[in-house]
Write a structure and sequence with these properties.
Elements: H1 4-8, E1 27-29, H2 35-38, H3 43-51, H4 58-65, H5 69-81, E2 85-87
Antiparallel strand pairs: 1-2
Helix pairs in contact: 3-5, 4-5
């Protein structure tokens, strides 16, 4: 049961504050990649790799390619496992 003081409090205690956004992950290329090597990559891997400039976030690259974040994130993981991309 509420006390008279608790009942007098407004139901809302101000605007809800959204949780902080996760830090942006900025991929960067590691060294040079031979053109011959990229021929074996999927089209999406080549598209994502082409947009990596050390300044764009994964979110921005997903937006540019009109792809879901999870798809681009997965491709980034593939490129990272190939040793051609580092995620910062």
């Amino acid at each position: 049961m509420l006390t008279s003081q608790e009942a007098a409090l407004p139901a809302s205690r101000g605007p809800s504050i959204p949780p902080p956004a996760p830090p942006l992950v900025i991929p960067r290329r590691i060294g040079q990649v031979e053109r011959e090597m990229t021929k074996a990559w999927s089209r999406k891997q080549r598209q994502v790799f082409a947009l990596i400039d050390g300044e764009r976030s994964i979110e921005r690259i997903a937006l540019i390619l009109s792809q879901p974040f999870t798809v681009v994130e997965s491709i980034m993981s593939e490129l990272q496992s190939m040793g051609v991309v580092a995620l910062e």
